[in-house]
User: What shape does this take?
Amino acid sequence: MNTFKTLFAAVALSAFALCGAEPYLSFPLNEGDVNKVREATGKIDKVTVWNANQFEVVDGPDGKAFNFNTPDKIKTYAGLCFNMPSGFDPAKGFTFTALVKTPENMHRSRQYELFFWSNSHGKGPGFRIYVSWKALWVCVGDGKKAVRIASKNSQGTLKDNTFYRVAVSYDGETVKVYVNGTLRNSAQGVMTKSTRQWAAIGASSPRGSAYGFNGIISDVKLFDKVLTDAEIAEMKPEM
Assistant: This one.
């Protein structure tokens, strides 16, 4: 592994047109330079890299890709932590999308964190998105109760070491989970805005009793609106 002279993606906060929608935040994670994420401007005023020695640059679907590596026996977690802009309120509606490559050998019950902005791993307030039991999961809550739904069904089971375009949306009442542009599950749920200042990609904490991702995460986008089923269907995996 190199010294991270080339490690991962610039944080792109400029306008990006997607089916008429512009992301609130965009992390391409495909340029291979760890320093550029620390130089983020625009809506984000601080970015911290957790456990940089557990990151690796690999060939990805669009240039270099950012590979998260969290061995099962190590209680430190590779991740990107950033201050969430105060103006973003997911309880009013949001969409999260990302291109991910699942771990080579997914441990069935382990929770592989994709995105975390919640006061807790359980009831919130806020939301978290992760892979577990070979499915994409989302948890939204208001601090008193939470709803968790998964993509798993006969067509939605995630395979090891495979690229997927994943998406989650919430419109204030209904949370939806998509895999490769197809709606896999939905449920009613109530969420309030997290009071945590920071959010994270790839982990929920840098160490301790937490959760981390193994595999590639790239092309992360967070919208402050609900994309339609048709808009999400247009976002195909890019391999």
Summary: The chain has one domain: 25-233.
